[in-house]
Structures are given as structure tokens and as C-alpha cells.
């Protein structure tokens, strides 16, 4: 049986932690070499819009640092799981790349605890990043007063992608999102009655977790949702029960063949008109662009019903591994990805928004302008499915529980499993 992405990555990172705890002095000088002749950058951006974004970023890097050779160490497949497994093997063998991609936030915990990545706090000070990154982002990058990664972007996970034609034909105004989950479910019922077989599209395990986190956020609110990750909100709370009930009803309007399909399959169902809605991060923007669809005409977006005024955050970020053979090259890479030009080139291609507050929204199309305004004023919360809210082992437990629930629809078993996962994740 295929393991969920979080489980596969979790096994790899678990091995990494053990390796970190038992490693000898083979790491040598923690600062690594200041050699800037090249930089080997490890990502899972090997195809599609992600590769397009990486290529745009590399072009800026080559212009800024022509004497540093860029070495692309991207690993394809498994929605990032293949890359994470390969990376864990390299770090365990003390053979790190010069920089590697990760999600900012709790996903980095295992690397930090295994002493595999450098503190970049001084890099932030030297390059003025504390002044151009917003405090909401700096807070989410900081662990015990230290910062370990540099974000290339900010993504939003509470976005509904809407096929305007299907809604219009069903007598639903596509430009105004429903006020809450109940109103959204009522619209899905209308779509079914109008002959739309699949009102809501889903794909592989992590997309189902992302949908569930959106339902939690809509039901609990920002404070209640964030409380799940520090224990101030319990998973046996009655509102979590309500969220599971709403999630169950949402899945009754979704395709049943999503598990095993990667996210573009679900997004393409909205693009080709076989589904009305898809809850997906704003990397989906590049998929719509690639298929020649026009924002506001062929499709539109709104925050997941019930989450207006909240921004469900994640960010792609890059690290400086302990013992990087070309630490000078890695620092050049980190400077490039955090620069105004680097962030502009990358985010225009990726569909995300720049992490820098000095970016000009006029340089971006309509969706990204709206996302930039929302990130500046909304309540920011950390994404569960994308490693910002909890460490890998806790996400692994939740993903397994959601995977089982999608098959059984046993709400009681799911809630019990979530309670156990919280207890384990908080170390209680």
C-alpha cells in the first residue's frame, strides 16, 4: 500500500534525527567552506510551473553572481517525497548540498534538532532582511530566537478556485463567495441539482489534509485553529466535531478517485469544467495560466468560506546546511532569492507573492495583488498540510488518520485519532 507523503517524508526525517543524535565529529567546521565558485541547490522543482519558477530565479541569480556556477540538484517525483528521502540520506552521510528547499516553520524542527542547518540570524542582519520581511513572517521563521531559512515567497492555502461558467449556469453568482460552510454546501447541492456530477475536486492525501485544515479554520476561527497546535484548543472540542461533520458533507460532493492523483489533476477538473470548486494553494494560478484561462472570466478565487480575513500561510524557503562545501555560493544564492529582483521573477512565475514588504503590487496580476493586500492586513495562521504548523511526525499522524477517514467516514475514529496525535505531538 502506498504511504502518504507525510509518512514517507516522516520516516526519512526520523532517520535523520537519529543520525544527528549519534553523529561523530565528521561534520568538521560548522561554518563550512566560504568557497563561492559554485552552489548546488537541492529542490523538488523539477517540472511544470515549479521548474519555470526555478528557472526564472536562476536567471536572476546568474545575473547577480556570474562567477558562481549554479548546479541544479532537483529530484523529481512523489510531490517532494523523493527529494526529501534523498536529502535525508545525504545529510545522514554528511554529504549536504550547498542549500536545500524546505517549508518554513515547524517542518524545519527535525533538521534543527539534528544540528543539520545553520543559524542564519546574522545573515538576516547583514542583508537587512529584518527590515524588509514583515514581522508576521519573521515570527514564523524564528525558533528559539534564531532564524534557519530564507523564504523565496509566501503562499496562501485557504483559496477556492471556481469555474465561473458552471456556477452561472446553476444560478449561483460566482463573484461572491458564500459566507460560511453551510452556505457553500447549499450551493454544492444546487450544482448537483443542475447536473454537475462533481461540485468539489480533491486529489492525493495532502490535498485532503489541506481541505480539512480549511474546514478547521472556518469552524474554529483563527485563534481556535492556532490553539490546536499549542494545546489551548483540544481536538475533542465540540467545534472539532462540527468541523468533521462539515468535512464529511464536503467529501460527499467530491470525486472518489482523488487518492493517488497529484494536485494538478484536481485543479484541471475546475479548468476543464468537470468540477466547480477546488481548494488549493495559489501555486494553482500557474496551472490556470498555462492552460490559457483568464482570471475573472473563466475562473475566479475567494477565501474558503468562513475564512475571510484569515491568511493560511506557508512559504518555500532555503537553508544553509552545516558543512556545506560551498557556503559562499550558498550565501550568494540566499541573497539572490531574498532580493527584490529575485522575488519578483520567481513569484510572477510561481503564482505566490513576494515575502518582501517593499514589493510593488502593480508589478503583479490581479490575483496576486489581492493576496498581497490580504497578507498585509489579515490574521495570518500557519498551514498544517504544508509543514508550517507542526513538525513532520505530527503531520504524519494526522495524514494517516485523514487517509483512513476518507475510506471509512467514521467520524468518531477520526476524532479519537486526532486527539491521540495531539497528545503525542505536544509530548503529553
TrEMBL record:
Location in the cell: Cell envelope
Membrane-crossing segments per the record: none
Keywords, alphabetical: ATP-binding, Nucleotide-binding, Signal, Transport
PROSITE patterns: PROKAR_LIPOPROTEIN
InterPro entries, per database record: Bact_solute-bd_prot1 (IPR050490), SBP (IPR006059)
Keyword Transcription regulation appears in the UniProt entry: no
GO molecular function: ATP binding
Signal peptide: 1-19
Function: Part of a binding-protein-dependent transport system for a sugar.
Protein name: Probable sugar-binding periplasmic protein
Organism: Microbacterium esteraromaticum
Amino acid at each position: 500500500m502506498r504511504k502518504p507523503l507525510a509518512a514517507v517524508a516522516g520516516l526519512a526525517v526520523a532517520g535523520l534525527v537519529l543520525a544527528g543524535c549519534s553523529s561523530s565529529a565528521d561534520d568538521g567546521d560548522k561554518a563550512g567552506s566560504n568557497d563561492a565558485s559554485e552552489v548546488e541547490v537541492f529542490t523538488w522543482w523539477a517540472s511544470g510551473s515549479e521548474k519555470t519558477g526555478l528557472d526564472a530565479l536562476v536567471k536572476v541569480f546568474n545575473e547577480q553572481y556570474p562567477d558562481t556556477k549554479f548546479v541544479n540538484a532537483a529530484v523529481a517525483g512523489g510531490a517532494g517525497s523523493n527529494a526529501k528521502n534523498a536529502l535525508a540520506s545525504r545529510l545522514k552521510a554528511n554529504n549536504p548540498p550547498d542549500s536545500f528547499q524546505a517549508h518554513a516553520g515547524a517542518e524545519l524542527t527535525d533538521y534543527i534538532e539534528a544540528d543539520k542547518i545553520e543559524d542564519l540570524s546574522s545573515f538576516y542582519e547583514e542583508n537587512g532582511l529584518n527590515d524588509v520581511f514583515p514581522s508576521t513572517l519573521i515570527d514564523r521563521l524564528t525558533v528559539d530566537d534564531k532564524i534557519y531559512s530564507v523564504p523565496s515567497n509566501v503562499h496562501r492555502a485557504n483559496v477556492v478556485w471556481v469555474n465561473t461558467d458552471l456556477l452561472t449556469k446553476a444560478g449561483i453568482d460566482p463573484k461572491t463567495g458564500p459566507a460560511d460552510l453551510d452556505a457553500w454546501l447549499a450551493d454544492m447541492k444546487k450544482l448537483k441539482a443542475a447536473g454537475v456530477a462533481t461540485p468539489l475536486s480533491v486529489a492525493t492525501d495532502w490535498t485532503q489534509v489541506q481541505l480539512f485544515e480549511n474546514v478547521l479554520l472556518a469552524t474554529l476561527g483563527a485563534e481556535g485553529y492556532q490553539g490546536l497546535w499549542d494545546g489551548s484548543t483540544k481536538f475533542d472540542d465540540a467545534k472539532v466535531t462540527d468541523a468533521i461533520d462539515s468535512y464529511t458533507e464536503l467529501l460527499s460532493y467530491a470525486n472518489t478517485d482523488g487518492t493517488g492523483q497529484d494536485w494538478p489533476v484536481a485543479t484541471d477538473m475546475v479548468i476543464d469544467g468537470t468540477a466547480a470548486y477546488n481548494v488549493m494553494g495559489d501555486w494553482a494560478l500557474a496551472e490556470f495560466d498555462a492552460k490559457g484561462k483568464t482570471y475573472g472570466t473563466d475562473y475566479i478565487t475567494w477565501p474558503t468560506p468562513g475564512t475571510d480575513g484569515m491568511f493560511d500561510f506557508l512559504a518555500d524557503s532555503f537553508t544553509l546546511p552545516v558543512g556545506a562545501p560551498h557556503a559562499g555560493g550558498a550565501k550568494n544564492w540566499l541573497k539572490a532569492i531574498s532580493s527584490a529582483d529575485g522575488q519578483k521573477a520567481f513569484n510572477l512565475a510561481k503564482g505566490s507573492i513576494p515575502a518582501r514588504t517593499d514589493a510593488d503590487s502593480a508589478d503583479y496580476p490581479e490575483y496576486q495583488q489581492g493576496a498581497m493586500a490580504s497578507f498585509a492586513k489579515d490574521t495570518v495562521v500557519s498551514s498544517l498540510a504544508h509543514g508550517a504548523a507542526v513538525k513532520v511526525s505530527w503531520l504524519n499522524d494526522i495524514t494517516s488518520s485523514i487517509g483512513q477517514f476518507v475510506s471509512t467516514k467514521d467520524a468518531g475514529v477520526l476524532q479519537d485519532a486526532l486527539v491521540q496525535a495531539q497528545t503525542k505531538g505536544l509530548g503529553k
